[in-house]
Fold this protein.
Amino acid sequence: MASIRDGLYGWAAQYVVRQQASVGQPAYLYFFRHNTPAERARDLAAFHASELPYVFGQVGTNAVLGPNWPRPPLTDTESRLSDAMMGYWASFVRTGIPKAPGETAWPRFTAGQRGYLDIDERPVARRDLHPGAFAFADALVANRLRQGRDWRLDIGFSAFAAPADEQGGRR
């Protein structure tokens, strides 16, 4: 399951920012790893889209979250993180550059710097998110694309051919 997560979210996000940077377009990458007690109680930690309550100012509310969503608590720490994230996202929409008052500068992702924003209790500028972790996926996807195959179907468990059944079909 981790290989599917890493392929669809981790590798794909880095692939997009690498492509943007390679043609000279500003590119920004973030890694949201912040989690709350409600998430840990469900053995979720940070999960896909768990940053959305922070981006949209929904910390401590039931307003737009689904009934099964583990809600971030309304604490000073969670509120500060939400304020920072709303600042970054709103600035990016307005200017194309994500900035938040009083917060660390979000580094641009470039081929040489590979900057990203590491978001846990506080946003921190970092470089080289999981260096080397996606080399296998890069090679696999490049090979699949040469074969004319869709890369999205070739990440994780589906990266390996299923054995043929007795009638020549795939199991």
About this structure: Residues 2-153 form one domain. The chain has a mean pLDDT of 84. The longest strand covers residues 115-119.
